[in-house]
Amino acid sequence: MLRINSKHAIKLGGITVLLIPHSQKHVYRFRVNMQWLYFTVIFLFSFCILSAITLFWYNKTEMQKKNRENEMSVWNNHKWIILNEETKIDRQIKYFTNYGNNLYYQIWDKPYDDTVGDVESAGMDSQKFLKFMQPLDNVLEFIIVREENYKNLPLGWPIEQGTITSEFGDRISPFGFTTDFHTGTDFANAIGTPIKATADGEIIFAGGSNTGYGNYVKILHAHGFITLYGHLSKILVQEKQYIKRGDVVALLGRSGSATGPHVHYEVRQAETDSNNSSYELFLNPLPFFKEKWN
């Protein structure tokens, strides 16, 4: 049988524990000092807290490491979006340069030496000139098309300066110790920071919602690209309005589910399934951050 003598605890500043066996008359008495008891409880409590914090940061570090590995994998799979454009344009520029040098040689019968002769004094035949100019028109048309495609790619950050506080992919939720999938990238800065469109397009939504986005703007770009800007403090555009890359569409805030002032930025791809039902595919914005337009 176990008894705790509280009377002795008050008088002596401790707790007396009595062990009285049923088969023996001898009573075992133990006295526990309250100071040591307090110290032990505080130590165990502190140890549990530190262990929980250590485990939390370890899981967060491992999650970030995994996210970065996934991002690098996604980057390797999607980098053609930008790199192919650059490669094709560079190839066309080289072609244009070589063609220009060859055109000069064909017209004036000598290599190009930074000296431009007069067309009439060189005795050049106009029909010959037009013949060589036709491929040049094709090159220029190609460059113009590529430039239009480049303007429609959502490149760079939605704010000029800031800090990335949460990246695309699996993460530890800022609202608890559970994990969730983050569908975009968070850029933190002061409330009221201008938010700019990352590509030309049409505003398809501008307003508030009961979802975690709070106030947000949604822009449809060419080739089915969609960008979303959430947690806004003020919206400066209207639906069906056409905007250009670099136009300020809103001001940064913390509306909706937000632990601090930031803009939640997403890049999506409009798709259609086999039943002709439309849906939006979340893309990792990392490949589009490779080049900053602003």
Q: How confident is the prediction overall: mean pLDDT?
A: 76
By DSSP (H or I, 4+ residues per run), the number of helices equals 4
Domain module count:
3
Computed over alpha carbons, the radius of gyration is 34 Å
- By CATH's scheme, which homologous superfamily of the largest domain applies? Glucose Permease (Domain IIA)
CATH topology call of the largest domain: Glucose Permease (Domain IIA)
The H/E string reads EHEEHHHEEEEEEEEEEEEE
Q: Structural class, judged by helices and strands?
A: alpha+beta
Low-confidence stretches: 1-12, 114-124
List keywords for this structure.
Glucose Permease (Domain IIA); disordered N terminus; eight-stranded antiparallel β-sheet; alpha+beta; 294 residues
Compile the SSE list and pairings.
Elements: E1 2-5, H1 6-12, E2 14-19, E3 28-33, H2 34-78, H3 80-108, H4 126-151, E4 163-166, E5 169-172, E6 179-182, E7 185-188, E8 194-196, E9 201-207, E10 216-220, E11 225-230, E12 232-235, E13 242-243, E14 248-252, E15 262-272, E16 278-283
Antiparallel strand pairs: 1-2, 2-3, 4-7, 5-6, 7-15, 8-14, 9-10, 9-13, 10-11, 11-15, 12-14, 15-16
